[in-house]
Amino acid sequence: MLKRKKVKPITLRDVTIIDDGKLRKAITAASLGNAMEWFDFGVYGFVAYALGKVFFPGADPSVQMVAALATFSVPFLIRPLGGLFFGMLGDKYGRQKILAITIVIMSISTFCIGLIPSYDTIGIWAPILLLICKMAQGFSVGGEYTGASIFVAEYSPDRKRGFMGSWLDFGSIAGFVLGAGVVVLISTIVGEENFLDWGWRIPFLYRSAVRDYRALPAPCAGRDSGVPAACR
C-alpha cells in the first residue's frame, strides 16, 4: 500500500512577486551596464596594434603586438578574484550598490588608459601603468558580471529566469560590436598616422565621459518575504 506523502504548502514567501514595469527597467539597466563594461574592455583589443607601438616602441612589430595582447589577457586572470570579492560584498550590501561601484572602477581605469603618456615620455612606467589599469578593469568586470547575473536572477519570474539572463550576454556582445564600430569610425576619420599618435585615446576618454550612472539603480521588485539582496 502506497503511503501518502505530506507536501509542505507553498506560501507567498516562496514566490517572487514581479512588477512588469520594474522588471523591464531592471533587465535594461543590467544589460546596459554589461554593455558599457564590455565596450571598455573590448576597445583595448581593437586598438592593440596601436598600443603596441605606443607602449613597446623598441620591440619588433610582432613582439609589440604580442606584448599588447599579453597585457590584454591579464584581466582574464584577475576576473575570478573580482567575482569572489564583489560577490561577497553584494550579498552584504546589495547588488545595486556594488554594481554601481564596479562600473565606476571600470570607468576610472578606462579613462586613465586614455591619459597614460607614451613610453617615449615616461619610459618603463608607461607599460606598468597600463598593466595596473588593465588589472583594475579585470577586477571590476569580474564583479560586474557576477553581480549582474545574480541581480537579474533575483528580479526575474521563476519561469523566465533563463531568458531574462540571456540579455546579459546580449549586452556583452553589443558592447564589443559597438567598440569595434567606434574604433573603425575614429581611425577612418583621423587617419592611421593620427590614430597611432593620439586617436587611439579617444574611445577610452569618450566612453568614460558620456557614461550615465543613473541607468543602474533601477527600482526594485519586491518579495513578500522581504527585500531581495539586489535591492538593498
Automatic annotation (TrEMBL):
The keyword Cytoplasm belongs to this UniProt entry's keyword annotation: no
GO MF annotation list: symporter activity
One Pfam entry name: Sugar_tr
Lineage: Bacteria, Pseudomonadati, Pseudomonadota, Gammaproteobacteria, Enterobacterales
Residue ranges annotated for the Major facilitator superfamily (MFS) profile domain, each copy included: 26-232
Protein name as it appears in the record: Proline/glycine betaine transporter
Membrane topology note: Multi-pass membrane protein
Encoding gene (name): proP_4
GO cellular component, one term: plasma membrane
